[in-house]
Amino acid sequence: MQHSASGSGLEIRGVTHFYGPNRVLAGIDLGVRPGEVVALAGENGAGKSTLMRIIGGYQAPGSGTVHWQGAAVPADLHRTESMGITLVHQEFALIPDMNVAENIHLGREPGRFGVVDRRKMRDQAAAALRLLRSAIHPEAQMRDLPVASWQVVELAKAFGTAPGLLLMDEPTAVLGREETAALFDRIRAFRAAGGAVIFTSHRLDEVREIADRVTVLRDGLITMDRPTAEVSEHDIATAMVGREMSDLFVPRVAPAAAAPVLEVTGLNVPREIGAPVKDAGFALHPGEILGVAGLVGSGRTEMFEGLVGLRPAQAARFTLRGETRPLPRSREAWAKGIAYLTEDRKSRGLLLEASQILNADLTLGALSGGPLLDPGGERARYAKARETFDIRSANPLIPAGRLSGGNQQKLLLAKTLASNPGIVILDEPTRGVDIGAKAQIYRLIASLAAEGRAVVVISSELPELIGLAHRIIVMDRGSIAGVIRQPETGQVTEAEILRLGLGLTPASEKEIPA
Amino acid sequence: MSDATLAPAGISARQRIGQLGPLIALILLVILGAVSSDTFLTSENVLNVLTRSSIIGIIAIGATFVITARGLDLSVGAMAALVAGLGIMGMNWLLAYMSPMAALVTGMTLALLIGMLAGLVNGSLVVFARIEAFIVTLGTMGIMRSLVTWMSDGGSISLDFALRDVGRGLYYGAVLGIPVPVIIFAVLAALGEFVMTRMRFGRHVTAIGSNPDVSRYSAIPVNGVRLATYVLQGACVGLATLIYVPRLGAVTPSTGILWELEAIAAVIIGGTALAGGYGRVWGTVVGVLILGLVANILNLTSYFSPHLNGAFQGTIIVIAVLLQRRRGNT
Q: With a threshold of 0.80, does the pTM exceed it?
């Protein structure tokens, strides 16, 4: 660890933080000197955003201290900003009905006696945008601009506060190549002027390009903190994932050769934010587990939600069990035996205030239940599901929201699989689930395939995909970047997946989707 | 009075008392009425209150479903006036072709269908055109209200006297001493409670109000169910007018004014969540009775002017929502 001299730069000591019973940060020690750029890497849920929020004054740490230039950082946004700390969120804090210059100066408009000097505001905004090599007009209305421009305006606004320490959460997620290069030049100038930067990015190539130091978080702990020059992308990825997962998985059984149960080509799914899913194509086979990798925002979820009618989509050709037909609407997909388990358990998966019995029977009842409820049948089905899925709760009438994450997820699986679907699409099936429940869910997924169902597992956890899947689709910015088939012996490596998903492979190396 | 659908175990005793709050309030009102007036507990007065409450009550049963599914229908008062107006005009016209009884029955069927059609229009605008229910029904309220004014030319649309004699029984008649409107209200309330707690439709209404996204991801036909709640509301309005028309025999531009607020108030006082996701028809019945009893007690006693009725009802609504919020927080 490289700690700055006391009183200079950022000093984080023993920061621990809990959300409810979940420990998000476990004793973080970190120092950042003026003129240093630190990349914060880690999987989703590793604690990066929480740490950023604490440094930025959005949140007080559960315990531990944060000092900037020798003074304690208060959990008060306005005071941290006046100390010279600025946080750029992933969510934009811009007002659509104002123009660019007004947004850049929001809350610190130039002028006297409350009268805004509009010309000065416009000129300053133009200068700030010039430093980011942006062609955005300072008087353009915010709502007319695309999402990448919003990010650029947000960055111009942040640099405009003349910070000493700039915190940026995924600043390049929505930026194109040119805008990213301009941002990096701006960061270099800022660093040369003595500014300190902490940023997060999923793109390891960017981390290597701009960061002086890489700090990796995993499960709330710092697992690596080294100068960028000394580490490879593989080192970073290992430190991010790090745990031994091999015994969690049952051995893969190769599926018997069979005709695909579902085929789609030319699948397009428009999106509100981020690159739309373009010209995707794949086939699902009975008994096969298809893994889907890709960064958050790469279009993984949207691709499958489009396929099952949960969002508007078009396909050049869609074939289900040999029948070529239009893409199904949502209830049609269920009726045709295609089940989709959402990644968003709390707001799309379960009725949190309703009983477990009601939740478990919701989809089955909507698909094939009669007009009258059948409380006896529901109880019996729930008793069976509780055993099959090992849902641990004292009373089936306790609301679903009061169960632990693992039990909620098992309940969601029970609900999704109640109609005995032949095609099962699981989006982040182990999100927010402890390791024991994870192993159970892995066994369940393996048995679904062994029973001859076609299974799709979308996941951010690469070890999970490597341990489960027969084939892995890698998504990158709305397109399928490649398909990796597990070798006869041994396993795909994470590096192979990361290379495709992080846009590092030249197009010529990409395999044509099977 | 079972909340078997969504009310799970593990709720505290305080919450249970909170759920029974409207019933307790009703009992307290009855005691208050009995203590303060000798005539309050006479069967004549009790049946009078029930009969007067039944029109709003029938509308409020429909509103319970709409609100539970996270919708809102502000147009019910204007809709009642329009349906009644069209119904009367239809019956008067039919009288030239058939017996008064046949004209009455045909006209009533027509009124019921018109109500459902109006509900279908509201529901389609909310569900398919994706306009806020508040805006849609505010708009249709204005449209239907002004149609009534136009149709009546600012005066009144009156039922032919031949029809009045035949139809009288629907409001003023009684079976085994119980007025017909009360019987219709009671049967509809029992049916509504059954649909809400024992039928899949009621569960889907509750699920959609609780979380529309979860419902959509659970293969529930969200659009169809939401549409159906508005059609159901229209049918209830149609049914209410069947009782209303024989009562007064005429419709004026001021018929049904503020009925929507009385109906919504009854639903909320009864414990249905205004934000949707939790609804109970029996609570709505209690809510209607509370509103009816407050007016009745003010009329029978001389402590306060009956003109303060609105103030008391308003206070009760605010208290009911306060109690509801507390329930939501715990």
A: no
- Helix intervals (H) in A21-136: 48-55, 77-83, 100-104, 118-131
Give the tens place of pLDDT for each residue, A256-271.
778 999 999 999 999 8
User: Is the predicted pLDDT of residue B36 greater than 90, yes or no?
Assistant: no
Whether chain A has a CB inside 8 Å of the CB on B312: the answer is: no
Q: Pick B214's closest partner by Cβ from A330, A350, A373.
A: A350
Residue A45 lies inside a defined structural domain of this protein? yes
Cα→Cα distances A400→A253, A347, A410, B325, Å: 34, 12, 11, 21
Which of B3, B203, B214 to probe the A interface (max A CBs under 10 A)? B214
Contact B6 A353 (CB under 8 A): yes
Task: Give how far Cα A233 sits from Cα of A178, A230, A245, A415, A504, Å.
Answer: 23, 10, 20, 40, 11
The predicted pLDDT at position A503 comes to 56
Q: Which two tokens stand for residue B96?
A: 């030239």
Domain that holds residue A91: 10-241
Out of B6, B199, B217, name the one closest to residue A342 (CB).
Answer: B217
Decide if B230 contacts B128 (C-beta within 8 A): no
For residues A181-189, average pLDDT: 92
Give the separation between CA A32 and CA A9, rounded to whole angstroms. Answer: 6
- Under 8 Å CB pairs connecting chains A and B tally to 83
What CATH number does residue A385 fall under?
Answer: 3.40.50.300
**A104 by DSSP, 3-state: which?**
helix
Give DSSP secondary structure letters for B271-311. T--TTSS---HHHHHHHHHHHHHHHHHHHH-SSS-GGGHHH
Report the distance separating Cα A189 and Cα A196, nearest Å: 11
Q: Name the residue with tokens 């010039």.
A: A130
Domain count, chain B: 1
Report CB contact under 8 Å: A351, B211.
yes
The ipTM (two decimal places) reads 0.85
Structure tokens at A491: 């396993």
Q: B16 in contact with A at a CB cutoff of 8 Å?
A: no
Query: Residues A93-123: pLDDT tens digits?
Result: 888 889 999 999 887 888 877 788 888 899 9
- Of A353, A350, A370, the closest CA to residue A362 belongs to A350
Tell me whether residue B315 is in a domain. Answer: no
Which domain does B220 fall in, by range? Answer: 44-285
